[in-house]
Design brief:
Length: 103
């Protein structure tokens, strides 16, 4: 799959997961890796860091778990808006491709 297409899809999927619950990086990456096994772990973390830098996520430190505190990510209002745009664009693209005859 083309890297640019995959990047957009991964961003949408990460934001979607964060819209359902807060995550710290590792379990989020593991769940995404189950679906996108060919994607390198560093790619997931790079997208997560970029989303945070763009204000689409916020973070907080969770309670200690027998080790260092974990940094949890949650979707921000900006992230929710971006997610809705990405989902709308995805649905429009699926419709257009289907109109061509590709299913």
């Amino acid at each position: 799959m083309d890297a640019q297409i995959k990047k957009g899809i991964l961003e949408m999927c990460i934001l979607y997961k964060l819209s359902r619950q807060d995550y710290y990086g590792y379990p989020l990456m593991q769940e995404m890796k189950e679906v996108f096994s060919e994607v390198n772990e560093s790619t997931f973390y790079a997208i997560l860091r970029r989303l945070h830098k763009e204000g689409k996520t916020s973070s907080y430190l969770g309670k200690e778990s027998g080790g260092p505190q974990r940094k949890y990510y949650t979707i921000s209002e900006e992230g929710r808006k971006s997610l809705q745009i990405l989902i709308n664009d995805w649905n429009t693209l699926k419709t257009k491709v289907k109109e061509i005859g590709i299913s």
